[in-house]
Structures are given as C-alpha cells and as structure tokens.
Amino acid sequence: SGKIMTFRVHLEGASGNSRVQKRDKCTMTICIFYFPGTLPASWTPMNDQEYLEVPLQFGSEEYSKVANEFRTSCQNIAIDRIQNLKLWESYSVRKKAVDRKYPNMVNERTLYHGTTCEIAEQVKKLGFNRSFCGRNALSYGRGTYFAKNAQYSCDNKYSSPSDQGYKYMFQARVITGKLCLGNHLMKVPSPVDEKDSTNLCDCSVNNVSNPSIFVIFCDDGAYPEYLITFNKKEQRK
Questions:
Q1: No. of H helices and E strands in the chain?
Q2: Where would I find the PARP catalytic domain in this sequence (predicted)?
C-alpha cells in the first residue's frame, strides 16, 4: 500500500532583453508515489487512517489461528487486530536492517507480552515502551519482556486482571535477530564481537540455546499485532 503525495511549486523568472523585462510565473504540480513498505495482507484497508482496531470474528480463520497459537487454559473473550501505520513502518524499517545484516537467520518471532488494561491502551497507540520495565522482575535486562509460551505471560504478575476479571495479552511480532544471554544489570544487549562495542546483539534471552524469554531494548523492535482479552478458566477441584 502506498500514498500519493502532491506538491504545488510556484516558479518565477525574468524574460526579455536588458531594457525591457517581464516576470513569468507558472505553477507546477508534482506527484510523488510514496511507498512506506508492505502492509500485512490480513489488514483491513485503512482509508487514510493512521490507526485502526479490528475485532476478529469468532470462528474466522484468522481468529482460530491466533486462538490456537495462544493455546492455554484460558477462555478467549476477544481478539483485536491492531493496525497502527506509524508503528508498523518503524518496525518494518528496523526488521529490514536486521534482515540485511543476518540474511540467513530467522530474525522475527511471534511472542507474547502480558500487561494491564491501562498499559495495553498505551501500547496499542504508542507501541511497547521500556519505561514500563521494572514493574516485574528484570532478570535478563532492563528492556521489554516477551515470552515464547503464552502460559508464562498469563501469570497475574505480568497480566494482572481488571476489576471485571479480564486479562490482557499482546501477540507480537518481535525482532530477535542475534541473541545474547541477559542479566539483571543489562541496559543494552552484549556486543556480537568484543572487539566492536558498537555492533550489538538484537535481543537478550534466558537461555541462548533454548530461549523462552526474550528482552528487547529498542521500542520499535516489536509490533503489537493482536490484543487478546481473556479470563482464566476456573480450575476444577
């Protein structure tokens, strides 16, 4: 999906001989086709909107796919697709840069981030924000945390229920790229090579060989693709 940007340029110049000159004026319209990047095929047309929140229909193919990947002992109440053009463009630029750097690696993963109702509203519009880190444990770095398994993020410590008992979780696209082992003092990922302190890994994890917890330190390194609103099933005794 692209945009046509139109500019009107006013030109003015002189013509004639040195004794008699007249001013010539004209207006030129220039149209430039701006291509911000490929939007997901599943997105509903935006119609010049910057933000759109699309409730998925229960039983639809897209709803079932997200719900099946969620796979926990939770009842899905609602799944909303988040279409935020500004966040998507920022994320796409970073992902392309990482893909160029590591062309033979899988640089993107689908991960989960549990949160509160209030913070979920912020994330939908403004994206993930490292300033919220510190609400929970910081064992693997001072960034934004994501889990491979939704069950982990379902814990009340990460997804505390609202007054109505609803819990909130994002299914996110996350640029994981090159991994490093995290620690509680880490503010940025470790260098890929100790000889170059500016060439950093993209993500810290709890276990490099078999990671289940991922921490990113760049706010545009993740995109909140779906917001899942749910409640926990009561455990039978």
A1: 4, 13
A2: 39-237
Instruction: Please check the confidence at residue 112 and state whether its pLDDT lies above 60.
Output: yes
Class of domain 58-232: alpha beta
Q: Could you identify the residue written with the tokens 């609202």?
A: 162
- Say what the alpha-carbon torsion angle 181, 185, 191, 197 is, to the nearest 10 degrees: -170
Q: What are the residue ranges spanned by the domains of the chain?
A: 58-232
| pTM assigned to the model | 0.80
Strands 3-16 and 21-34: what pairing? antiparallel
Q: Can you tell me the distance from the alpha carbon of 84 to that of 120, in angstroms, rounded to the nearest whole number?
A: 14
Q: Which residues pair with 11 in a beta bridge?
A: 26
H or E segment to which residue 8 belongs: strand 3-16
The pLDDT value given to residue 160? 74
The kind and range of the H/E element at 175 are strand 167-175
Return the SS3 of 61. Answer: helix
